[in-house]
Task: inverse folding
């Protein structure tokens, strides 16, 4: 790689080389073509040295072409703003004023102005000044006006606390709760998929048991026209909810005739979740209800819907138009009508305006779905407050959004073009992962004053006491792969700004932040999380002391952990014991015979390490002590789930999350990374017990007793 190309790449945050761990630490050099591709994607030219020099000159001049940045993100203990003025303008002085964002109540902003740098452009001399702010400013967003003799310049100042919001344990030392996949909940009343009423009942179950937190899979809206695209990590908008979680029978104006009994019976009897049958039945019923609502415009319910829609700042309209258009296109294809072009080829001008004008009722229906989903989730939040849970809902924010989404379609320039997020090779995925998720353009994101990121944080912190940031390393650097290719590299983000915004929104929304950072983690990154009071995941299968795989003792777990046995990407305990995922990977052709045999041997070793760890902590239930080594076909240890849960409950970690799959000995893997239907039914597994029976289950009570002994 030429030195000048390397310089340009570094200035734009395109990594030309990076390290990753896959068996050992390795270094990969990004090809020149790949580096040029991403430089071009960021709006700069790099085909030859002359273009590169012009791009470097453009970058060098850019900050001198405007007085203020669009936004400044600063910590409370280090507030400053830089401003570029002509030397003549600077001589006449500048006055700084501030007001809480949107209030218009401007006050003088005390501070000290210092000259930093000068630059000559043509015949004009410019000076860059730094204004160090002396005022005490509470965390929040502020409008800043800078007045000179020539003009008034405006910007936004985001003042962030040094750390994220702290965990309020309501006087308790350590907390516990459930890690639920909401869709997997079975009940005698739901329509074949878990819903918000099931979630409300789980709040009651947890509260009666003394727990304080319920972790959830991402609840974001998925593809309306293809319900089988079920991954909660590939939404069409991270701002809104999946209407499949609506309990239709609790919607005002519901009537018994709306229920498709035959379809629901089929969905309930299905071994795995039949998303098409469930979603079709729910949408059909909700359309009927919506028609009644629209005839009752004097009702309080309609007025609340009208208010919900009126409060939209554009994102709800965008989602509703996207869904209405995709539905129209899908129906046209299904009925053999004239081919309708994809929405990404629709202009945002007259063509789309004509569609919107002719489909207002369908668009309103999709807004209604969001209104009702929000209303039902809000009721769960109210229940949590009534039951006094210390944390309540612990929501999950995906690292990206589907490339075919309302977010990307409605704001293409905000996202990287012709590439998507993924992950380089690591110990779990030796070939890497190509998620193909839409990723923010870091420069465009700042030009929008980070508002798209802020809106997404607020939407997912709503009704939550904690939020999990999926692949939190993505706020610092994100591995991108071209759509037409397999080789990728990292793109750097303004980590200081991103984490300061995260801390500020955490503070404003009183929401604890948990960062998922399993995989390739750069040196010092986890120290940074600790400094900012961002909790990490403490997963039993990952927390090892050495290359031999020795498991950490409970007292060696960090305090600032949300601990668990596994995650949705890992097999539940019983499936782990029998190495079900290793056999599956071989059956699907993803593991060679040698890799499978090596995996089985290592799992045998891990099983022995687990037994040793449990023995060492004395956590086996008194009436189910270990009877053998359970090696070479000796079977499954009775009471091992209780012992493992007691082991994790003993941990130093402030929060421990139980997975119902472990309590009830499920052997179904929720997600087998690197696969999807038809290879494997990811995101479709149901729990083996119905919600109504959980609280009365002996297995449940034994596990809760094992946990509460140590929490």
Result:
């Amino acid at each position: 790689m030429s030195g000048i190309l390397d310089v340009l790449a570094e200035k734009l945050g395109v990594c030309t080389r990076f390290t990753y761990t896959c068996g050992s630490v390795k270094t990969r050099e990004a090809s020149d073509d790949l580096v040029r591709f991403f430089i071009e994607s960021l709006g700069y030219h790099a085909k030859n040295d002359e273009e590169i020099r012009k791009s470097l000159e453009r970058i060098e001049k850019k900050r001198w072409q405007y007085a203020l940045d669009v936004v400044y993100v600063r910590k409370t203990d280090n507030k400053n703003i830089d401003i570029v003025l002509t030397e003549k303008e600077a001589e006449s002085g500048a006055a700084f004023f501030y007001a809480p964002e949107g209030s218009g109540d401007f006050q003088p902003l005390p501070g000290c102005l210092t000259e930093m740098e000068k630059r000559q452009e043509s015949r004009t001399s410019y000076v860059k000044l730094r204004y160090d702010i002396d005022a005490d400013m509470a965390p929040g967003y502020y409008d800043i006006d800078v007045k000179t003799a020539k003009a008034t310049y405006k910007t936004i100042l985001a003042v962030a606390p040094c750390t994220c919001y702290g965990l309020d344990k309501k006087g308790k030392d350590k907390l516990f709760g459930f890690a639920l996949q909401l869709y997997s909940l079975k009940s005698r009343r739901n329509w074949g998929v878990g819903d918000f009423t099931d979630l409300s009942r789980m709040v009651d179950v947890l509260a009666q048991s003394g727990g304080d937190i319920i972790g959830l899979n991402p609840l974001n809206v998925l593809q309306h026209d293809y319900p089988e695209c079920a991954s909660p990590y590939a939404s069409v908008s991270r701002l809104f909810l999946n209407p499949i979680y609506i309990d239709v029978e609790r919607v005002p104006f519901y009537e018994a005739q709306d229920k498709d009994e035959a379809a629901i019976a089929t969905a309930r009897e299905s071994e795995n979740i039949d998303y098409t049958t469930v979603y079709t039945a729910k949408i059909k019923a909700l359309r009927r209800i919506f028609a009644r609502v629209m005839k009752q415009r004097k009702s309080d319910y309609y007025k609340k819907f009208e208010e919900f829609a009126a409060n939209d700042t554009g994102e709800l309209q965008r989602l509703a138009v996207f869904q209405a258009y995709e539905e129209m296109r899908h129906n046209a294809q299904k009925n053999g009508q004239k081919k309708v072009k994809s929405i990404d080829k629709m202009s945002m001008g007259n063509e789309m305006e004509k569609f919107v004008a002719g489909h207002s009722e369908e668009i309103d229906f999709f807004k209604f779905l969001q209104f009702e989903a929000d209303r039902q989730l809000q009721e769960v939040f109210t229940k949590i407050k009534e039951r006094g849970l210390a944390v309540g809902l612990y929501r999950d924010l995906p690292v990206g959004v589907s490339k075919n989404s309302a977010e990307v379609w409605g704001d293409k320039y905000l996202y990287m073009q012709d590439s998507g997020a993924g992950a380089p090779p690591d110990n779990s995925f030796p070939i890497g992962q190509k998620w193909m998720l839409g990723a923010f353009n870091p420069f465009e994101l700042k030009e929008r004053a980070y508002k798209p990121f802020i809106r997404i944080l607020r939407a997912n912190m709503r009704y939550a006491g904690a939020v999990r940031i999926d692949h939190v390393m993505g706020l610092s650097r994100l591995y991108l792969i071209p759509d037409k290719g397999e080789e990728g590299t990292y793109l750097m983000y303004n980590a200081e700004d991103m984490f300061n915004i995260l801390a500020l929104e955490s503070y404003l929304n009183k929401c604890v932040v948990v960062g998922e950072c399993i995989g390739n983690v750069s040196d010092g990154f986890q120290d940074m999380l600790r400094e900012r009071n961002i909790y990490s995941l403490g997963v039993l299968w990952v927390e090892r002391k050495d290359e031999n795989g020795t498991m950490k003792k409970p007292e060696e777990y960090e305090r600032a952990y949300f601990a668990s046995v596994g995650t949705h990407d890992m097999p539940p305990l019983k499936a782990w014991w029998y190495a079900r995922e290793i056999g599956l990977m071989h059956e699907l052709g993803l593991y060679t015979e040698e890799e499978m045999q090596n995996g089985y041997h290592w799992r045998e070793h891990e099983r022995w390490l687990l037994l040793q760890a449990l023995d060492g902590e004395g956590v086996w239930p008194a009436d189910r002590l270990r009877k053998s080594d359970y090696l070479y076909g000796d079977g499954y240890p009775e009471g091992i789930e209780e012992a493992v849960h007691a082991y994790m409950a003993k941990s130093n970690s402030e929060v421990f999350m139980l997975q119902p799959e472990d309590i009830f000995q499920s052997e179904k893997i929720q997600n087998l990374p690197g696969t999807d239907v038809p290879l494997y039914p990811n995101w479709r597994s149901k729990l083996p017990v119905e919600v109504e029976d959980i609280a009365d289950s002996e297995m449940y009570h034994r596990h809760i007793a094992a946990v509460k002994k140590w929490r």
Notes: DSSP finds 23 helices and 25 strands in the chain.
